[in-house]
TrEMBL record:
Keywords (A to Z) from UniProt: Ribonucleoprotein, Ribosomal protein
Domain of life according to the entry: Bacteria
Start-end of Basic residues biased regions: 53-62
Biased composition (Basic and acidic residues): 33-52
Protein name as it appears in the record: Small ribosomal subunit protein bS21
Family listed: Belongs to the bacterial ribosomal protein bS21 family.
GO cellular component terms, semicolon-separated: ribosome
Species for this entry: Shinella yambaruensis
Length: 79
């Protein structure tokens, strides 16, 4: 993973790096590897993740078809 530092702005480059790592799931993987996970716990977790993914896909499909209202977007105050 590579991040360019522009105008010696290391703080901004660090923010970009953290955002990229977050998107790639690196923090979640590091947390998972920090302690041993029993095979039975792993199966339960993976099953729950699969159920969550399927529900999310079904919800998005219903929203596209117009059977469910679209989620309300948060309005950010102007700077």
């Amino acid at each position: 993973m590579q991040v360019l530092v522009r105008d010696n702005n290391v703080d901004q480059a660090l923010r970009v790096l953290k955002k990229k790592m977050q998107r790639e799931g690196l923090f979640r993987e590091m947390k998972a590897r920090s302690a041993y996970e029993k095979p039975s716990e792993k199966r339960v977790r993976e099953k729950a993740e699969a159920v969550r993914r399927q529900r999310k896909l079904a919800r998005k499909k219903l929203q596209r078809e117009g059977l469910l209202p679209a989620p309300k977007r948060a309005v950010r105050p102007a700077r």
